[in-house]
Automatic annotation (TrEMBL):
Record lineage: Eukaryota, Fungi, Dikarya, Ascomycota, Saccharomycotina
Pfam family, one: Cyclin_N
Organism: [Candida] anglica
Cyclin N-terminal domain segment(s): 90-185
Region annotation Disordered: where it falls in the sequence: 1-40
Gene3D superfamilies: Cyclin-like
SUPFAM superfamilies for this protein: Cyclin-like
Organism superkingdom: Eukaryota
Name this protein carries in UniProt: Cyclin N-terminal domain-containing protein
Amino acid sequence: MSQSVTSPASSTFSAADLSDNGSPATAYSSPEFTKRSFPSASVSPNQSSYYSEHLNKSHFNLILINSAIKLLRILYTKNPQQGEISEHKLRFFIVEILRRSKTSTQSLQLACYYVYKLIKSNKQVDICPRKLFLTLIILASKFNQDYNYSFKSWLKICGSNDNEFTIRELRSLEMNTLSLLDYELYLNNEKYENWCNVLMIFSYDFIKQQRILLQNTAENQLTFELDDVSVTSKLTHWRELFTTLELNANSSINFKSYFNSQKGSKVIFIDVESERVQVPSLFTKRSICAIDEKLDIVKKFKYSTSIQN
């Protein structure tokens, strides 16, 4: 397990910090709830560059998947009859469903929003986590796209046969889930953007450290929080927040301000070129070992030089 990184107080926020309309309370100035200017239409919240130029697509996908898992854990903490969730099994299921169905980022964000709505509603959910997530992805895809898979195709994507999961059962799950959501699937414009910002702040609360290499963002390192006591405490905090959090056009939730507040603690920028230690020989071949303490990587550099006339 990597070394623990302590986040500043501004890394979390509570329902008490919000006024009735969802905007910041007067006595609270957390950066994530400051007024933001909406980005141009060319950059939308389903793109990693919307949040940070240093966030690559691979990490963005991992962060959203981890968010879905943590949201489901919150939901099923309130519904213990389904038993304790195995994050390992649930992660495998979610990754495979998303990969096989080629689900869009926006549909995943919508599915996470529906989990938030279920948490907020405080309704009893008697559906197993994997089947609920599948149903939410189906609903999100139907809301977000003109062309969608049939129930039969979804069952094929799951690799399910008639003895495990039937079209009738899937159709029944869809109707039951719609009822739990009060048939309200709509999410658009500022409300969608606010939700995406909330989702990313929620996601980053479960990241222990993000190391950003300025010369090559493809090599960035992302470490998720693994300490179960810390994770459980944060889940409890967010469950209380989601119960009272209102998303509306009057509130402006800003992930970029939150991200900036984490620089130097949770978010570490590393200039690889300036951190290298190089002592080349002028006359002989030799291997020089340069230890980059920040990256924890030992790199070997070989130099071959010759005297020229």
